[in-house]
Amino acid sequence: KQDKHFHREKSPNSGAPSGEERLVVVTGPDYWRLEIQPLARNRRARRRLTLAATILLLSILGSGVRLGQTWENGLKKGNFRDFPLPVLVALTVAVGVFAPLAVVGLAALSFAEESVEVAGGFVTIRATTFERTRVVRIPLNDLDSWKLTFFPLPPWWTWTVQRLAASWKGKLEPLAGAAGPKEKRQIAQLLAKATGKPLVR
């Protein structure tokens, strides 16, 4: 809810058309908030996500058919000399288990929403995925720094990319999981400026 005391603007260097920006900063007296909009909000991103999902699903279907034929041939012959059984089992698990999980991860990436609020001596991180919201409040005095790292942090569907985390009391609290590497760097710079805490790469 906005009034004349608050100012809402897209993040610097965004360059996105009005209504499509992902990073939005809301400021007010003793108040700062960064909103990370869902990736699917952007028309270009929606087209890319649709293309990625289509390619992924077609790959799963094609691989499933090929693996099914390989299993059938091996069972008919009574051996798997043409294709080593351990490799076939590993590929079957990859296609049957991990590929569907990748589709779920893509859906989470598309619709995840996050915000970081700096007010009242606290940094409040909210992350909403699949209509579930996780809230973490960090006392500003306990916050050591903001870290950009490749260390694997939850959520699981962003383990393969660079992560951004708040470092406090010897632990890392991940955020901006759905943002890309360039956006994470931009978010980290904004947070460092808003909180007065250093950015560690």
List keywords for this structure.
4-stranded mixed beta sheet, 201 residues, 3 helices, 6-stranded antiparallel beta sheet, alpha+beta, single chain
Average pLDDT works out at 83
Tally the beta strands.
10
> Strands of the largest sheet, in order across it?
1-2-3-4-5-6
Helix content: 25-40%
Describe this structure in words.
It is elongated and about 75 Å long. The chain has helices at 43-77, 85-111, 181-195, and strands at 7-10, 23-28, 31-36, 113-119, 122-129, 132-139, 143-149, 163-168, 171-175, 199-200. The chain is built from 3 helices and 10 strands. Mean pLDDT is 83; it is low at 14-18. The strands form 2 sheets. A 6-stranded antiparallel sheet has the order 1-2-3-4-5-6, covered by helices on one side. Strands 9-8-7-10 form a 4-stranded mixed sheet. Helix 1 packs antiparallel against helix 2.
Brief account:
By secondary structure, this protein is an alpha+beta fold. It contains three helices and ten strands, in the order βββααββββββαβ.
SSE diagram, text form:
Blueprint: E1 7-10, E2 23-28, E3 31-36, H1 43-77, H2 85-111, E4 113-119, E5 122-129, E6 132-139, E7 143-149, E8 163-168, E9 171-175, H3 181-195, E10 199-200
Parallel strand pairs: 7-10
Antiparallel strand pairs: 1-2, 2-3, 3-4, 4-5, 5-6, 7-8, 8-9
Helix pairs in contact: 1-2
